[in-house]
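User: Continuing from earlier, I have the next pair ready.

Assistant: Great, send them over.

User: Here they are, in order.

Assistant: Folding the first of the pair now:
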Amino acid sequence: MSDTHENSVAFVRTETIPEREPPFTASGPVKWMRENLFATPANSILTVLALLFIYLILAKTLPWMLNGIWSTDSLAACREILDGSTGACFSVLTERWNQLLFGFKYPAEFYWRPTLALVLLAVAGAPVLFFDLPRKLLAFTAVYPFLAFWLIWGGTILVPILAFVGVVAGAMVYKRLVTGSFAAGFFGGIGAAIVVWWVGGFLIPEGASDNAMLGAVPSRDLGGFMLNMMLGVTCVSLSVPIGIALALGRQSSMPLIKVICVVFIEFIRGVPLITLLFVASVMLSYFFPPESTVDLFLRVVIMITMFSAAYIAEVIRGGLAALPKGQFEGADSLGLDYAQATRLIILPQALKISIPGIVNVAVGLFKDTTLVSVISMFDLVGMIRGPILASTEWNGVYWELLGFAALLFFVVCYGISQYSQWLERRLATDHR
């Protein structure tokens, strides 16, 4: 009896069995392909058709690209070297790269200036885009627009200094008006105006020296992809705060403010951008004094900013409408006024919800900057359609130039898209 009982006792191991590798078909690339490409018969058929389509495209384009010519000075010379074989004439890119990037009028000896402005843009935008960086870097972000203006347009450095002093003075006056008494803000504004007038009226004519000068470049000489970048960065940066103000104004309880915002948004959204660009080119100057000459670049920036601000306003209004009513009631229960509740509670949540829509508008706006070519501004597409293809050396080169333009726009837009996805994950916009 005891022997039977002893034999029935189960054996318990005192150490873990070593792990074994999973089957080859249940891990690695094979598993991924089975789950994503060949999970069902329909998926398998679509995968095969997609691979066939990719093969047909690459079979035509790869020989054309790999057999490309890079060192000739005309399309005729390219065709002479190819001698009937298939190949691209990439020589137009090496021959006209400066016009594609900077336009055909921007002085060649000044190419370093917009290049430096682009590098500094990454430095200035870093603390805004990546909020883990030290907040002290925002000081350079505030200075950058004035520095970039001086680098690209040139002239005396006292002009951007004057503009910076005016902005700082206006910010101080606004802070006084909001946090202090009206009298203090009023007299502070008068004092700031006197300081700005004194600096502009006395220091610039007498203090401008060769050491503080860069060669001046008029706006009509700007062109190429540089012009697209300038319009995109400037208009997006200006349209976001204006769009926030319009969205808040549309939900305002003040009838006059609400009507103005509604009329503005609906009118701008009902008009094509190309129409607004023609208005900027032809009609907008009539709204300024007769003796004033308003720069075409400024007029285009005004119209594109108005156009994108209207769409951003609707995106942000959707974010505001998505917030639960309890958020507004919670702000009221804390005793916060409208400005405090909007700045501290409402807008941060609404902007997080609106990130995909804002990025969508920004990407569309950057691509729409190519429309300025219809009003004789030689951006990247304008340079391709105008001076380059009009020249006898390169008349007939299309795929190489348009492919290069598509590559530049894809790199910028894809970078914006990837940043927005990272920002969504970082801010957890799905409220997990």
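And the other member of the pair:
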Amino acid sequence: MVYLCVLKQVLLIIVMVFWLYQVIISLFSFVKPKDKKLLVNKQHRFMAVLPAHNEETVIRNLIRSLKRQDYPGTLLDIYVIADNCTDDTVAIAKEEGVFVYQRFDETKKTKGYALNWFLTRKVDEDADYDAFCVFDADNIVNSDFFSVMNKKLCQGEVVVQGYRDIKNPTDTWITAGYAIFYWTMNRFYHLARYNLGLSPLLNGTGFMVKFDLIKKEGWNTFTITEDIEFSLQNIANGRKLGWASEAVVYDEQPLTFAESWKQRTRWTVGHLQCLKHYTKDLLKGIKEYKTLMNVDGMLYLTGIPMMVVTTFLVLVNLAIYLMDGMTAMGLLLNCASYLLLTFALPVIVGGLSMIIDKRPLRPMIKGLLCFPFFLGSWILINFRCLIKQDVKWEKISHVRDIKIEEVQVK
């Protein structure tokens, strides 16, 4: 009994310190740092890179939103990587007058492999570009995206994540769950860390990379979450990533629970792959650079382990109760506190992020009420993936034909 009580206290301290750290860091989202000085003042030459696998429904809207940029068209080239396409993606891209690279490799279908394949060719060609930005085929992009990223490049930023917004947040309770999740992450994770001088993470789409970095180091990802993997590679090497709240990309989210389950399973498997392959590198980075940024990058990977620790803490409480070391009320209060931390707090924080960013609450009431179920299903996904990891890549359907004029705020 004594050992169980000691174990309970140790686990409780670990959980509370982890969450207290997250809360303290998130407070820096309210700090507005001084704008960085320009190291150069020029308009850089960009590639817009669009990996696409059978995206005939949405690819045209993305291309047209990129053509509407308030950035000189002579300095922006659009490339579609038609990755194992069997539909009209290639034909549509050619109709829109952009560059098309066709790739066929049934054994390596992920976006990471497509980017490696394409960027290797551009490096071999000694292509004359300063930077490239990556977009998913279902995206639509605000007209000032490249102007904002050009400024970041002028300020000396090397890898920068833009603001990932949602183009269909009110379609279903699932899309609302995604929206609340991303809005919360944008403000209380990425922005907070950027303000504090830590490193945000790449978020799948709408990010910029200085081309010289790829010329020197290449794009070498192999997990099914290439964005997180590339982020951790940079953090482990002491390189801080940038954040651009004003560079907005609108992303389509799955409409159904089944599609969402499939997508989030892929993300969890990728997270576990990164945990396995990059923990050692991140620990080396902590030892070499001795910065909070490296520690924070390592802590990002501990999200799923912390879920396991919290679950074990609940089981320890139950064991103490069964051994008459705790009252039923004590067990109930302890479990309730863990549940509130896991489910109620994210709803409050999600609502707060919407209020701060002046988003209308009324259309999202259903999403906020269902958000605990969205998070709960994610916990189930995490446990399932801990038991069985399916690394097979599966396409997520994109069906929402939404144009940039319908969502961009003037």
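Worth noting for the second one:
The two ends are 63 Å apart (CA to CA). The chain has a mean pLDDT of 92.
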